[in-house]
Amino acid sequence: MGWRNDKREAERRRGESICSFARSFDCRVIDSWIVRAVYEEFSDSFPVRAEDSFRDDLRTDEEDLEDSIEAIAQRIGRSLDNTEANLLWGRLENATACDLVLFLNAQPRLSAGTADR
Question: Is the separation of the CB atoms in 83 and 43 below 8 Å?
C-alpha cells in the first residue's frame, strides 16, 4: 500500500472521528483515556476504526506496535508488568485497535503521578 491508498482510505472514512471510534466501546467499563490514546496514536493517515487490524489496515509491524504500546501505556498510566497474565496478550500478534484498547484496559494502573495525562 502507500500514501495513495491512505488518501483513498481517508476519503472513504470522511466524517469519522474519535467520536465514531469511542462509540465502539462501553466507556462506563473502558477507560476513555485509553480509547483516546489508541485513536491518537494510530490516526495520522486516516480515522481509526475499532476493527482495524494493525498488520493489514494500519500497516504497523510488530516492533512499531510494541513501541506504540509502551508509549500509550506511559501516557495513560498503565503498567506493562506481568503482561503474560493478561488474557489478551497472545492476541496482540494479529490485533485490532479494539484488542489493544481491551488489553490496556485490563492492565493495572500505575500509582498517581506517573501518567502523562
Answer: no
